Amino acid sequence: MPQIVLRGNSPLFGADLRQLGHVFFPGEEIAVFVPAADEPGGPTAEGTEWHADVSATPSDEDGLHWTVTVAARGPEGAAHEARGSLDRGPDESPRTWDHRLRRMAKGLLVDALGALRGFRPGWGILTGVRPTKFVHQMLDAGLPDPAQELMREHRLAPDKASLVTGVARLQRPYLNQDPRAISLYIGIPFCPSICSFCSFSIYPILEHKGQVPVFLEALGREMEIIGGAIEELGLRVQTIYFGGGTPTSPKDEDFAWMLQKAAATILKGQQPEEYTVEGGRPETFTRAKLDAMAAHGVHRVSVNPQTTVQATLMHLGRIHTVEKFYRAYDLVRNHPKGFTVNADIIIGLPGEGPDEVTHTLQDMQRLAPDNLTVHTLAIKRGSKLHQAEGEAADALRAMTYDEAEMLIRQAAATAREMGQHPYYLYRQKFMVGSMENVGYSLPGKESIYNIQMMEERQTVIGLGGGATSKWYKPLGGHHGWLLKAPDNPNDPSAYVARVEELAHRRVEQLRLLYEPHIIERTE
Ligand code: SF4
Fold first, then answer.
1. Which of the 8 DSSP states describes residue 266?
2. Which residue from 63, 104, 140, 418 has the highest number of Cβ atoms inside 10 Å of its Cβ?
3. Could you tell me if the CB of 189 is within 6 A of ligand 1?
4. 3-class secondary structure, 186
5. Which numeric CATH code is attached to 4-118?
């Protein structure tokens, strides 16, 4: 018998029970029961440690007045019941009604479990990846104070409501208004070694060095095909982002060739507003690679320690030392080009507590990158950490909600002291403390690509291993139409085999998206 049972009297509540269950019981096994029809499903509270029952029932014959109840029980007879009522409009669409019913049920679930568990999740009922998108929709609709609505209706803590609305307001001027502006993402699926928390399909470059030349050849072909479409359709490359993986993993001459090829096939004289190389792993930086970046107009470079505690780095399977990170950082920072420098760190790494995080934050303050990106550890399926018996659950349980919150605040305070403000944020499933990832920046040094990619108001064409493309068609005002195109294969061999076919399919889709008469209508 599972020790945590969450039940609902409608299938409508299944996904919400699961998602909020993980917020309140991180790393634990949770059993969710919802009936196929409107009959209660699953076991009763007997024999379980935690139990919550969500029920929505009409209290009149016409089904216009409803009561929603959440009855929760915990160990040693602890119990809490939360109740609310809702009126259904006679002409209300089933979709809107379901949405309102779920929102009320989620709010009451947070109230009831929060009372029993002794903490209120800062993000309230929001479990989605992009809370800022939600705020942009509210601002588009003319809502004067989204923070108030987030606190009242969605149970956000005041600091999270203020964070997400502040970020969205800061992003507004960056949101794409030019229907022909696009961004490009180029994924290089190789890394020096695989980090234990990594959930991407990444290939250790030394073990796969035989595949690198054919991968690069295929990437070059893909650049030619996509570059031809960009020129034909008159698209403006606003940002270009080399990510992965670690795009600086290949040899110096191969790396320089990639940048050269992108200049010759995609950019063809265009000067993007922002050009980023997410170098990531410090051991891959060389002066020759930085010179190549400078020669090809790269503005922004990421050099990511994740932590500056040596013992943690070793535990994570990263094969570089802290010293190597310091040297790589100096190399990038002191390059005459004057790159904008980003550094990523992670809070909640296995074995790390306040002392270790403080050490890393002090290092960041000393080094003073232009962008500091603070991630909270997410233990996703596919990562070695998730597969290691019991380790994922242990890591999620290791840090309490309050500890994670305290460290997130400490990181925010450090960024503030460095003169940086939060400019983009996103959340992931299975994050320690159910927190968030936040990008901080000195004013004017914000990454435009990060904003466009996260807010999904611009077409992003993905090239390379595992790359995702998103088609966005503006439809006037801030409204638009978004479609996620099929991903490129992660596996280099599969990518090489299918690159030509997939690139041509994307060109066909781009032609449909950017047909001249459609663009003219929206301009
Ligand atoms: S450096 Fe990044 S992409 Fe590469 S293995 Fe580590 S987490 Fe994954």
1. I
2. 104
3. no
4. strand
5. 3.30.160
198 ligand 1 Cβ < 6 A: yes
> For residues 279 and 320, is the Cβ–Cβ distance under 8 A?
no
For ligand 1, is residue 467 a contact (CB within 6 Å)?
no
Task: Please tell me the distance between residue 264's alpha carbon and the centre of ligand 1 in angstroms.
Answer: 29
Name 67's Cβ contacts closer than 8 Å, sequence gap at least 6: 56, 57, 59, 83, 84, 85, 86
Q: From the CB of 194, is ligand 1 less than 6 Å away? A: yes
Six-digit token string for 93:
């669409």
Residue 140, amino acid: D
Give the three-class secondary structure for 330.
helix
**What are 397's two structure tokens?**
């349980």
- Residue 281 Cβ inside 6 Å of ligand 1? The answer reads yes
Q: Quick one: CATH architecture of 175-513?
A: Alpha-Beta Horseshoe (3.80)
| Cα distance between residue 292 and residue 248, in whole Å | 11
| pTM exceeds 0.70 for this model | yes
d(CA 160, CA 137): 17
Cα torsion angle, 120, 123, 126, 129, sign: negative
Reduced to 3 states (helix: H, G, I; strand: E, B; else coil), residue 458 is coil
Domain boundaries, the chain: 4-118, 125-174, 175-513
| DSSP label of 211 | G
- Separation of 281 CA from ligand 1 center, angstroms? 8
Which residue has the CA at smallest separation from atom 8 of ligand 1? 198
Ligand 1 centre to CA of 394 (Å) is 21
Determine contact, residues 302/276, Cβ cutoff 8 Å: yes
The DSSP 8-state label assigned to residue 75 in this structure reads G
Token pair in block for residue 8: 């609902």
Tell me, using a 6 A CB cutoff, whether residue 364 lines ligand 1.
no
Q: Which residues of 223-261 are buried (b: 16+ CB within 10 A; e: fewer)?
A: bebbbebbeebebebbbbbbbbbbbbbbeeeebbbbbeb
pLDDT tens for the chain, residues 1 to 523: 668 999 999 999 999 999 999 889 887 889 999 887 545 555 555 677 899 999 999 988 888 999 999 999 999 889 999 999 999 998 999 999 999 999 999 999 999 999 999 888 999 999 888 999 999 999 999 999 999 999 999 999 999 999 999 999 999 999 877 889 999 999 999 999 998 888 888 999 999 999 999 999 999 999 999 999 999 999 999 999 999 899 999 999 999 999 999 999 999 999 999 999 998 899 999 999 999 999 999 999 999 999 999 999 988 888 889 999 999 999 999 999 999 999 999 998 988 999 999 999 999 999 999 999 999 987 766 666 666 656 555 655 567 778 888 999 999 999 999 999 999 999 887 777 778 999 999 999 999 999 999 999 999 999 999 999 999 988 776 678 888 888 999 999 999 999 999 999 999 999 999 976 554 444 4
Atom of ligand 1 nearest to the CA of 191: 4
| Closest CA relative to residue 195, chosen from 358, 357, 304, 326 | 304
